[in-house]
Automatic annotation (TrEMBL), chain A:
One of its GO terms (biological process) is response to arsenic-containing substance. It comes from Natranaerovirga hydrolytica. InterPro entries: Arsenical-R_ArsD. GO terms for molecular function: DNA binding. This is Arsenical resistance operon trans-acting repressor ArsD. Residues 101-135 are annotated as: Disordered. It comes from the Bacteria.
UniProtKB/TrEMBL annotation, chain B:
CDD domains: ArsA. It comes from Natranaerovirga hydrolytica. It comes from the Bacteria. This is Arsenite efflux ATP-binding protein ArsA. The keyword Ribosomal protein does not apply.
Length: 135, 581
C-alpha cells in the first residue's frame, strides 16, 4: 500500500466553511479522504496551524518550505516522494496512485437514496429524514 | 419598594457574575461589592472580561490579566483580561517554538490564521475558564467576582463551554474544524469543570444589572432566560440608578418613567429576587465613591465653567452628512448611550432631505421597528446572529449538496456547528448591508463597543485571507474594508454620555478607528442633564459634573460635537423629529 501524506497551509478548518468563503477544492478533498477512509485507506493530512511540528520533522517538506516558502503548500507526498505542490491532486490522479476506481472517490448526491427529502430540511442535525430515518 | 443592594444581608456564593447591557453600571456595582467585601475582611478577586473594560479608570491603577493587589484595599486583587492581549499571548505561545525552525513566510501564514476574531474569543475564554477552575485562586479567595462584557458577548462566552464541549465530543472526523485550536482537546476537562461550576447554584450567582428603563430590563430578561437555559439558574436582579425623590418637573418625569419601567418589567424578571441601588449624584471613580456607592449619597456640586462657545445640535450633523453626501454612516459607542435613537433620527433627517435610507442594527437587543416606522424612503433591517448562521449554513449546504452525498454533508455540518462559523455568518451579513450603499445611504446602529471592535478586527484579518482565497468570495466582502476606509463615503459618529466611562471608551474607540483607517468627525453627547434646567439636588449635582466632560469632548472632537438634552419620554416616531428641530 502506498503511503500518501498531504501538507496543508494554515487554515481554520479542513472544509473551509469557517473561512470567508467555501473553497470547493477543500470540500472535494474532505470528501475524497473521507471516502478513502471508508475503504480502509488512510491518507495522512497535516495542517500548518494544527501540527507545525511535522513541518520540521518531515525532511522533504521541511526542505521544500525552507526553499520555496509557504506558497508551495499544499504539498502531497507519496512514499516520501513529492508528487504535487501548490495544489491538491485531482480525483483521477489520486485514484491512479492509490489504485482504486476513481468513481469511488466521488460521492454522488443521489447516494443518500432518499428522494423524499425536500430542499429545506437539510440543515437539521439529524439528517434530512428525521431521527427515525423514516421518510 | 425593593430591598437595597449591599454586600451584607445577601447570601453570596464563591463566584459572582455581574452581567447586563453596557452602561447599566455593572462595573460600578461589581467594584463596590468587591471593595465592600474586602473591607469586611474577605479575600476578593475581581476580574473583568470586557474587551472595553474600564476597571483601570475606576481604580486609577494600571492592571494586567494576572491580577494586581490594590494598595488601598488590602484584601483586593484586580485583574483585567483584555481579550486582545490574551489573544496576542496565545498567538505567541503557539508560534514561538517554531521561530528560527520554520521560514518567515510560513510563520507569517500561521500568524495570519491566528489573527481572526475566533482566536480572540478563544483566548479570552481560555483565561476565563482558567480563573473559574484554578484551584489556587479558589483556595486563596473567598469570592471571585466577574465584571463581564456587554451582554451579547458574555452570552456567547458563557455558551462556549457547552458549545465547545459538545463540539469536541461529537466530532467524528477528528477535531478538524478546531484547526488552530486543536490543542483545545486537552482542555476539555477544564471547560467541563467551568460549565459545571457555572451551573452549580451553591457556587455561582449570576447578578443581572439593569437601569430602571424598559430596554435594559428587556435585555436583562433575555440574558436571564438564555443563561437559565444553559444551566445558570441561581440569579439575582439589581436595578441601578433608581431616583428616590422628586421635586421638580424633570425629576418627577424621571421618577415616573423609572417606576413605570420597574412595575412593567418583563414577566420573566418578576420571579427573580430583585434589589435596587439609588441614583447617585457622582460618577464611580476613585475609592471614596466606590465605597459610598452601595451605602450613601455624597452630593457635591462641581464649579467647572463651560469653556465652549457654541454647542451644536443633531440637525447640524445631519446637514453636514447630507452636504458631504456620505453613503455609510455608523453610530458607535458604549451600550446605553442611545445609538439606536440617534441612528434612527439621522436616518429620518436624511430621508426628509430626499435621500433613500436604509437603517440597520447589529445590536442583539435592538428594536428598530418600535423606534421608527418604515416608509418609502426608509427601509429597516436587523442582523440577527442566529438567523444569519442559519442562512449561511443553508447556503453552504445547498452548494455542497450538488456534489456530495448525505454522509459527506454531515461532515460539513459538523464544521458548520463550529463556534467560528457564527462569526463568519454575521460578518457576511454586515458586508452585504454595507454594499447597499451603492444605491442608498446606509445608517448602521452597531452593537456595543467590544463587539464592534471584534467585527472591525475580523474585517481586517479576513481581508488578508480573501486576497489568498480560491473560493468564490462574494463581491460585498471583497469591497467591505475599502469602503469603510473611504472617508468620502463612510463616517462614524461617536456617541457618549457626559460621564467618565462612556467618554474614556469613546476615546479608545476613536483611537481604534484611526488605527483601522476609518474616518470619524462628529461626537454626540446624549441625555445631558446640563442641557435641562433641573433643580432637583441629585440631578443638579449630576448636571454640574457634566461640565468638565463637555469641555473635554469639545477638545477631543475639535468642536465637532452636539449635546442633546435628557428627555423623559421614549423617543420614537414623531418625537424623533424633535431631535432634529
Amino acid at each position: 500500500m502506498k503511503k500518501m501524506i498531504i501538507f496543508d497551509p494554515a487554515m481554520c478548518c479542513s472544509t473551509g466553511v469557517c473561512g470567508p468563503s467555501v473553497d470547493p477544492e477543500l470540500i472535494r478533498m474532505s470528501t475524497v479522504i473521507n471516502n478513502l477512509e471508508k475503504k480502509g485507506i488512510t491518507v495522512e493530512r497535516h495542517g500548518l496551524s494544527t501540527n507545525p511540528e511535522i513541518f520540521i520533522k518531515n525532511k522533504q517538506i521541511n526542505e521544500l518550505i525552507n526553499k520555496e516558502g509557504v506558497e508551495i503548500l499544499p504539498v502531497t507526498l507519496v512514499d516520501d516522494e513529492v508528487i504535487k505542490t501548490k495544489g491538491y491532486l485531482s480525483n483521477e490522479e489520486m485514484a491512479k496512485i492509490l489504485d482504486v476506481p476513481s468513481e469511488s472517490l466521488q460521492s454522488k448526491p443521489e447516494d443518500d437514496g432518499s428522494p423524499c427529502c425536500s430542499e429545506d430540511n437539510t440543515t437539521s442535525d439529524s439528517g434530512c429524514c428525521g431521527e427515525d430515518g423514516c421518510c | 419598594m425593593e430591598n437595597q443592594f449591599n454586600s451584607k444581608g445577601i447570601h453570596l456564593t464563591k463566584y459572582l457574575f455581574f452581567t447586563g447591557k453596557g452602561g447599566v453600571g455593572k462595573t460600578s456595582t461589581a467594584c463596590a461589592t468587591a471593595v465592600n467585601l474586602a473591607d469586611e475582611g474577605k479575600k476578593i478577586m475581581l476580574v473583568s472580561t470586557d474587551p472595553a473594560s474600564n476597571l483601570q479608570d475606576v481604580f486609577e491603577t494600571e492592571l494586567n490579566n494576572k491580577g494586581i493587589p490594590i494598595k488601598e484595599v488590602p484584601n483586593l486583587v484586580v485583574a483585567n483580561f483584555n481579550p486582545e492581549d490574551a489573544a496576542k499571548e496565545y498567538k505567541e505561545s503557539v508560534i514561538a517554538p517554531y521561530r528560527g525552525k520554520l521560514p518567515d513566510s510560513v510563520l507569517q501564514n500561521m500568524e495570519e490564521q491566528l489573527s481572526g476574531s475566533c482566536t480572540v474569543e478563544i483566548a479570552a475564554f481560555n483565561e476565563f475558564s482558567n480563573f473559574i477552575t484554578d484551584e489556587k485562586v479558589q483556595k486563596e479567595f473567598d469570592h471571585i467576582i466577574f465584571d463581564t462584557a456587554p451582554t451579547g458577548h458574555t452570552l456567547r462566552m458563557l455558551q462556549l463551554p457547552s458549545a465547545w464541549t459538545n463540539f469536541i465530543s461529537d466530532s467524528t472526523h477528528g477535531a478538524s474544524c478546531l484547526g488552530q485550536l486543536a490543542g483545545l482537546e486537552d482542555k476539555k476537562e477544564i471547560y467541563k469543570k467551568a460549565v459545571e461550576t457555572l451551573a452549580d447554584g451553591e457556587q455561582t450567582t449570576l447578578i443581572l444589572v439593569s437601569r430602571p428603563e424598559n430596554s435594559p430590563l428587556k435585555e436583562a430578561a433575555r440574558a436571564s432566560k438564555e443563561l437559565y437555559e444553559i444551566g445558570v439558574k441561581n440569579q439575582l436582579l439589581v436595578i441601578n440608578g433608581v431616583l428616590k425623590t422628586h421635586d421638580d418637573q424633570l425629576s418627577e418625569n424621571l421618577y415616573k418613567k423609572q417606576q413605570d419601567a420597574i412595575k412593567n418589567k418583563p414577566n420573566h424578571l418578576q420571579q427573580i429576587k430583585t434589589y435596587e441601588i439609588p441614583l447617585r449624584p457622582y460618577n464611580v471613580t476613585g475609592l471614596n465613591n466606590i465605597r459610598a456607592f452601595l451605602t450613601k449619597d455624597n452630593i457635591m456640586y462641581s464649579d467647572d465653567i463651560l469653556a465652549v462657545d457654541e454647542m451644536k445640535q443633531l440637525k447640524d450633523i445631519v446637514n453636514d452628512l447630507y452636504n458631504n453626501d456620505k453613503k455609510v454612516i455608523f453610530t458607535m459607542g458604549k451600550g446605553g448611550v442611545g445609538k439606536t435613537t440617534i441612528a434612527a433620527a439621522i436616518a429620518l433627517g436624511l430621508a426628509q432631505k430626499g435621500k433613500k435610507v436604509h437603517l440597520t442594527t447589529t445590536d442583539p437587543a435592538a428594536h428598530l421597528e418600535f423606534v421608527l416606522e418604515k416608509s418609502d424612503d426608509i427601509t429597516l433591517s436587523r442582523i440577527d446572529e442566529k438567523e444569519e448562521l442559519k442562512k449561511y449554513s443553508e447556503e453552504v449546504l445547498s452548494k455542497a449538496k450538488e456534489t456530495m452525498s448525505k454522509e459527506d454533508l454531515e461532515y460539513i455540518q459538523e464544521d458548520l456547528r463550529s463556534p467560528c462559523t457564527q462569526e463568519i455568518a454575521v460578518f457576511r451579513a454586515f458586508a452585504e448591508i454595507v454594499d447597499k450603499s451603492k444605491n442608498e445611504v446606509v445608517v448602521i446602529d452597531t452593537a456595543p463597543t467590544g463587539h464592534t471592535l471584534l467585527l472591525l478586527d475580523s474585517t481586517q484579518s479576513y481581508h488578508k485571507e480573501i486576497e489568498r482565497s480560491q473560493g468564490d468570495t462574494p463581491e460585498a466582502i471583497k469591497k467591505l474594508l475599502p469602503t469603510l476606509r473611504n472617508e468620502k463615503d463612510t463616517e462614524v459618529i461617536i456617541l457618549t454620555l457626559a460621564e467618565t466611562t462612556p467618554i474614556y471608551e469613546a476615546k479608545r474607540l476613536e483611537e481604534d478607528l484611526a488605527r483601522a483607517g476609518i474616518y470619524s468627525k462628529w461626537w454626540v453627547m446624549n441625555s445631558s442633564l446640563y442641557a435641562t434646567n433641573t433643580t432637583n439636588p441629585i440631578l443638579k449635582a449630576k448636571a454640574s459634573n457634566e461640565v468638565n466632560w463637555i469641555n473635554k469632548v469639545n477638545d477631543l472632537s475639535k468642536g465637532n460635537f452636539a449635546v442633546l438634552e435628557w428627555k423623559p419620554e421614549e423617543i420614537k416616531g414623531e418625537a424623533l423629529l424633535n431631535l432634529l428641530s
